[in-house]
From TrEMBL:
This is Alpha/beta fold hydrolase. It comes from Bacillus aerolatus. Keywords: Hydrolase. Gene3D superfamilies: alpha/beta hydrolase. Residues 26-262 form the AB hydrolase-1 domain. The keyword Ion transport does not apply. One of its GO terms (molecular function) is hydrolase activity. The keyword Secreted does not apply.
Amino acid sequence: MKKEETVNGIRLSYEWSPHPDAAGTIVLLHGFLSSSFSFRKLVPLLTEQFSVLAVDWPPFGASEKPKRYVYSYENISKTIAHLINQLTSGPITLAGHSMGGQLVLHLLKYHPGIADKAVLLCASGYIPKAKKHLIAASYMPFVDLLVKRWLEKSGVEGNLKNVVFDQSLIDKEMVNGYSLPFEKRDIFLGLARFLRHREGDLTSEEIHQLKTPCLLIWGEHDRIVPLSTGKQLAADLPNSCLEVIKKAGHLLPEEKPEETAALIKAFILGL
């Protein structure tokens, strides 16, 4: 069930599943244009042994999208760190999918003591800051309509076909779940501000400074963030290992939840 908490000046939506005998807490951060809905198959598998916190990080999902908020990785990291400190105690594992993986890396940079371990699921990497003309465009009147039109070119179902290897997995529940956050205008205004405020991804030099043990899990047929990015991240992260799941694309929590959960559990428990 969704809950809300006002943190760092913004109302966050999240799902909190505490376990009475937890071996620690896993914090799940979804990818671009997504929400905690993307973890609906993974969470029940992880809550067998762990407490799980799945966050709709701004400007996505059901979280607030205020004009006053700064949608930079640094500020979003600060917001999530506050929520983690308010709700959890004991060992923490940060787990991020796609752009949520990049957010995990920023959390490790700005809050180095926040997690004992980290998991990167098809994490984005090495993407520069938006070009100046795009940032300038984000200030245009009715920019939200332009963002909406851009997203509608492929549509939710078209985007799902790009991220899922086995197309038969795409059903009405999946399409409706990923469509829901885009039924309100505020998401398009939030995306424009995120484009404006987002820094570039961490450089190889910055990543090399992160000492937290990291597990990288990749889909063999990822067309959004190719396996080559995973291999580069694994080479840059000094304390990491890379696992590849066969016959899977970019959306691992949807496509291969059992294999993904097993790898995460083994990594955390040191099996």
